[in-house]
Input
Amino acid sequence: MAKKHITLLAKSSSGYFYNVEVYFEENNILAYCSCQAGENGMLCKHVKGIINGDDTILYDTKQKKELEQICNHLPETAIPLLVSEIKNTEDLLEEAKRNAKKAKKNLEKVLLGKIHKS
Ligand SMILES: [Zn+2]
Output
């Protein structure tokens, strides 16, 4: 696949937009956003939105085709696997939080004599 570059305009909360520069590589996609987080080298919500195919992030709805092109290239990259790794880990974290809460309640029941109270 030939090297390619797309600039997407992503909505900002102020009603303006940020430039997201997307570079196609053979087995990868590089994405750089002009927002504060992006400038600081962090993965921002604009880039996250784009790799999730979320077209509500687009400032210009005419760019849906470009967004599609990016999403069509994703299966050739490690990105979907990494995204699902994050989701799975976050799900486990939520479950762990629920379990910790339950365990605290059980300790309260025992320690504070709440066993016979409804
Ligand atoms: Zn951004």
